[in-house]
Amino acid sequence: MFSIHAEKSLEIVMNNITNASEDVPTNVKDVQTDSSHDLINICEIKSRIRLHGNPLHVGLTGGIASGKSTVTDMFRENGAAIIDFDILARKVVEPNTKGFADIVNCFGSIILDKSGGLNRKALSRIIFQDSNKRKELERLLHPAIFESFCEEVKRIVEHNRIRRNCYRNEMPEQEQEQEQIVEQEQEYEKKWEEKQNIIIVSVIPLLIEMNLQKLFDKLIVVHLSSDIQLKRLMKRDCIDINQASNMVKSQMPIDDKIRHADFLVDNSGDLQNTCKQVDKIWNVLTKLSHGLNPTTPNNKNWNAFSR
């Protein structure tokens, strides 16, 4: 039972939400709400991700079992580039990475499994027992995760630039007056602008807990009613209501997250309901990515489906 509690702590440190099926310890909330400002320079990261082109950066977060992955997939289908911080967190500790080497150098071979990979349970026990060790792990991993984030933004923008060049090369080659050529280039440029919509949606479960709001141009919070959240969590993790309640209580209250949101997605209903909300938000984001000023409600927290 202790090892599952400890593993929960490790996943929080590594910016993941696990499917642990035991009661969440009372100090998990303290673990997950530590600020990252002393580990990373928010202003520097914000500047770096805007060095390459000018994509619209959108942060997406929400509570446990709120349906963040479902909503993320819907934005992906609309054309958004997705950066999942859970994936980044896992990649930085893969064998033969600097993050992996740093952890081994810090904690020793005791945190390795028989295959030479990371033994998460062993590492969990260490950081769960010693808060200084946990902070040391954060010191090692958070900069690596955000370095990976910057590189991923650069990769997305570069890929988009290549697509743009390929698209422009599709212009027919034929002799014509310079004025016609300019008009044609402008037409292709307009078509490209209509088609590219560089919108990067970064999915970060602990975005607000880590005070990362200022990294993004817009923030989306996925939420749902508490009773539905508990039912989905119980079904997803095969746990009872007491365990599910403890997991929800260990997190920042959803109302606190909602206060930071530019857009809300209420995922209490069916997929069609959620999809309608995502489509409305996407239409607004698309206009914003073109430098337009779409008409939205005056209140900051906009529930798309309410309009």
Tell me what portion of residues adopts beta-strand conformation. 5-15%
Shape: globular
CATH class of the domain at 36-85 and 140-171 and 180-306: Alpha Beta
Major β-sheet annotation: 6 strands, parallel
- What is the N-to-C order of secondary-structure elements (H for helix, E for strand)? HHHEHEHHHHHEEHHHEHE
CATH architecture annotation of the domain at 36-85 and 140-171 and 180-306: 3-Layer(aba) Sandwich
Key features of this structure:
disordered N terminus, 6-stranded parallel β-sheet, Rossmann fold, alpha/beta, globular, 307 residues, 13 helices
Describe the fold and architecture:
This protein has a six-stranded parallel beta sheet with strand order 2-3-1-4-5-6, sandwiched between helices. It has a domain at about 35-85 and about 140-170 and about 180-305: Rossmann fold, CATH 3.40.50. The protein is globular and about 70 Å long. The chain contains 13 helices and six strands. It has helices at about 1-15, 30, 40-50, 70-80, 85-90, 100-105, 120-130, 130-170, 180-195, 225-235, 240-250, 255-260, 270-290; strands spanning about 55-60, 80-85, 200-205, 220-225, 265, 300-305. It is of the alpha/beta class and about 300 residues long. Helix 13 links the parallel strand 5 and strand 6. Residues about 1-10 and about 15-35 have low confidence and may be disordered. The protein starts with a helix and ends with a strand.
